[in-house]
Input
Amino acid sequence: MSKPTPEQNEAFALIIDTSSSAAADLDQARQTAQRIYRLIGAEQFKIFMLGSATPISSTALKQTTPPGVNRQPQPCSLIAPIMETLVREEQKHSVIIVGSGEIFDLDDWTGDPRVEGWLLVYTSGEPSLQKPGGRIAEISAVQIGSDADTLLSYFSRPATRAPESPPACLGLSDADAFRWRVDASGYPLVFVEPLDAYAQLFPVTKPQFERFVSSCERPEYDDGWYEEILTLNPRASYRSADVLTRERLFMTGVTPDEALAFGRWMGRDYALPTAEEWATCYKWFGGQAALSAPPDLCGRLSPDALSLWETIEGQWLEPRRRPTLRDLSLMTQGILEWVAERPSRYCGLGEPAASKLQRRAEDPVRPVGRRRLRNLGFRLLTR
Output
C-alpha cells in the first residue's frame, strides 16, 4: 500500500482499547494516545474509548487508575459501534487504534473505502491487534517517534478507488409473494405462513451477535468469552472475497441461554423455535423458490446482511438445481441450530455444510453437558 503525505485538513479518529484483554495496559494506552494526539495536532481529531461511540475530551487522556481501584466491566474488543458512527460522516477519517489484544471485527472495516488510512499501536508484548498475517500497519508504542512526519509515514493507506456499490437487488417478480420485516440488527425476516410468524431468513451471524455484545454491557461477554468461541469457530469477515468455511460467518458455539439473551435484546416476542416449528419452516422453505433481495428491502438491510445474501446467492447456490428458500436460508448446507424440545430442554437440528454424517435435518443433536459445539448456532422466530 502506498503512503502519501496526508493533507493538512485530514481528520483523525483515535480509539483507545479498554477491553478486558488490554485492561492491564490501560494507563499506558492513555499515555500513548496522549503522545499521538500532541504529535499530530490536527484540528479534526476525535478520541474514543472502546465500548462507546461518543467521543471523549482530550483531557480524559490524562486520567489514571489509582492502585487498588476496581475498573468497571470492560467491553469486548469490537470497533463496529465506533466505526458505524465515523463512516456516516461526510469527512473521511484516518483511524488509529492503541491497545493490546486482537480487535475481533477489524477485517470488517479495513477494506471500507470510507476510511482514509489505518495504524495500529500495541502497548505491550508482540503485535497483537490483528490476526496473524494482517495487512494493516502495526507498530509498538516506542516506534512512534518524536515528530508527526515519522508517525504519519507508518499509516496504511488504501489506493484511491471508487466507493463500493451495494449488492445488486434484482427484485424478481416472486419477491412479492413474501412478506418481509427487518430486525433490530438489520437482517431480513420472512413471514412463514403455516406458523403465522416471521423467521430470520439466515442463521444469526457474528456481526449480528456482536451488535448485541457491544450494546448490552454485560461483564460475561468479554474478550475471554469471545476468544473461547472463536477458538472453536474462527471469524470470517463478510467482506471476504471467498469464504471457504461457511460456519465462520455465523455465531456458533453459543449456549441456549446466550441465544435467548440475544433474543431478549432483539425484542420481547423473539424466541427460539420449537423442534416442530423448525421442521415446519424447513418443509415450507423447501417449497418456495430462492430469490434475490427485493429493492424495497435492500435499503433497509445492514451492509453485512446484504453482503451475506449476495455471497449465498452468487457463490453457494447452484442455479441448475433451481434452489429453494431452504437453500438460500442455509437450512441445508448451513449449520446446526438450537431449538426447544420442551421447556428448558434444547437440541440442535439442521444439515451442517461441514458434516459428513448421514443423518436427517430433523434428527436431534444433543451436546453432552455444557459443551459448546463448533457448528451449533441459531435463528429466531417472532410474532
